[in-house]
Amino acid sequence: MSALLTVADVHISYGKVEAVRGVSLDVGDNEIVTIIGANGAGKTTLLNAIMGILPLKGRTTFAGIDMAQSDIEDRVASGLSLVPEHRELFGTMNVEDNLQLGAFRIAKATAATSLEKVYTLFPRLKERRKQLAGTLSGGEQQMLAMGRALMGAPKLLMLDEPSLGLAPIIVADIFRTVSELRTAGVSVLLVEQNAQAALQIADRAYVMELGEFVLSGTAKQIASNKRVAASYLGFQHEGESAI
Amino acid sequence: MNTTILLFLLQDGVTNGAIYALLGLALVLVFAVTRVILIPQGEFVTYGALSYAMLATGQVPGTVRLAVAMGIVAFGLDLFFARKALRARLVLRSAALNIAFPIALLAVTYAVAGPKTPIAVNIALSLLIVAAIGLFLYRIAFQPIAHTSVLVLLIASVGCHLALQGLGLVFFGAEGLRGPALSNVALTAGPLRFTGQSLAVYGLTIAFIIALWLFFGYSKTGKALRATAVNRLGARLVGIRTTLSGQIAFLLASVIGAISGILIVPITTLYYDTGFLIGLKGFIAAIIGGLVSYPLTAVAAILVGIVEAFSSFYASNFKEVIVFTLILPVLVLRSLAAPAVEEEKD
């Protein structure tokens, strides 16, 4: 399996404070990989640095190309896309304008089919397409942020806490959509505090604590790990292979 | 005071107000996209007006040489910032825009400049020269510090204003200039006489407002500029280059400034430093519009023009005082209505 995204020995600092220390990870084609961990572990910092929003030390390659010299816009053009924690929508513009700007770098004809696909994925957005993005509910804003990212036809979609502040029923909806992306040929790197939901749809997982990866493996291995179960899934495993 | 005087003053106010509206719109546009409060907007007015006036007398204005010099600096900056990953395509594109374009402009200006050059050619040349200066000004002074605070950008903006105004003295001298009118037709309606010039002012102002509305509401580039204004990070995340947005904003602002200058230079004598005061009145309109609202800015600009016309009739010594005092109640009201907002970080 060729890795789509490779991150090797990455360090990220805010001034003198090192928030991420020597992290390595990879994401393959058609793969859903999740990074779980508590608040403040450095997950968001890591995603932002991979996207180019924050500077990092270390090597990152995407689709075989070293990303050291590319800025955010180059990375978007090469098929990397981030749905940030705060969604960063264009609040005073309507839903359809937000989506169409997502295809800013895409040819018009392709953008039209992308728009249809996004509306099929999130019918709610189609109903509200003339509504201003800032007036949508939290769940709809998350759908719009994901839809906007998908409009650019990314190879890898990075999602930062998509479940944050959303009702459980909407979280389930969003996670179902994420698992459907795989069939559309999009890989996903998912950062989540909601470990249980993330591990259900992921192929592989990394556990992050205080800026370092402390565990990695298939989602099943991680889910059945006693320590993970105790710290992140909120229950104690009785047996070893109880899944 | 009789109705005729009232009508005259209103007409005068609306004509000036239309110019302030154009400048105010440009200020709002630039601030929204780049967070720069564009103090040198007035210099775009002066440069446009006086370049046009000099070309009309058959001389080559110094602004075209400034455009070449700024282009060379901009090219140097492009090369310097791309030094780690110098790609041929990037260098060629930068050379075409920063070197070939202003040099071609210089060559054309020298070739066609003469007392018999048609007005349309002079206007086109003046607009292109000021457009080039506006574009390079962003590249040189603002693009390298685009991520800094509004205050730093404002300081740079004041610096640019002082530098450009000083250069204006070098290029145009201390004496004022007037340019030829765009047309000599005149209409009479009751006691009022509308010259072709003032009709051109109204027409172009309305045309620009409609064009800006169409551009921002319907074109992909316009929407991208709006997106940059609403959310810079969001814009970058969909692949909109905020530097390109900044360049487009400055290009539009400089063209709008130059057009305003060309429109007023046949009506009043302009000096190398007149632009600043005109720009400031556009700024007042923009402030009344909260630096965000285009329609409010346009209405406020007309109001500023009318207040100016009436105060120059009743208390001409206090004309500027009265106009600039307008800003105080607005600021008080605005600060009462909206408590201090912390500056957006990005």
What does the main sheet of chain B amount to? 2 strands, antiparallel
Which spans of chain B have pLDDT < 50 for at least 5 consecutive residues?
Answer: none
Could you say what the CATH topology of the domain at 1-79 and 154-161 and 187-243 in chain A is called?
Rossmann fold
- The helix content of chain B is over 70%
Relative helix content of chain A: 25-40%
Tell me the CATH superfamily of the domain at 1-79 and 154-161 and 187-243 in chain A. Answer: P-loop containing nucleotide triphosphate hydrolases
Described by strand count, sense and barrel closure, the largest sheet of chain A is:
6 strands, mixed
Number of strands of chain A: 10
Sequence-ordered SSE layout with sheet pairings:
The complex is a heterodimer of chains A (243) and B (346).
Chain A: E1 3-14, E2 17-28, E3 32-37, H1 43-51, E4 57-62, E5 65-66, H2 72-77, E6 80-83, H3 95-102, H4 108-121, H5 123-127, H6 138-151, E7 156-160, H7 168-181, E8 187-192, H8 195-201, E9 204-209, E10 212-218, H9 219-223, H10 226-233
Parallel strand pairs in A: 3-8, 3-9, 6-7, 7-8
Antiparallel strand pairs in A: 1-2, 1-4, 4-5, 9-10
Chain B: H1 3-34, H2 41-56, H3 62-81, H4 88-112, H5 119-142, H6 150-172, E1 186-189, E2 192-195, H7 196-218, H8 220-230, H9 232-237, H10 242-264, H11 274-288, H12 294-314, H13 319-325, H14 327-337
Antiparallel strand pairs in B: 1-2
Helix pairs in contact in B: 1-7, 1-8, 1-10, 1-11, 1-12, 2-5, 2-6, 2-10, 2-11, 3-4, 3-5, 4-5, 5-10, 7-8, 7-10, 8-10, 11-12, 12-13
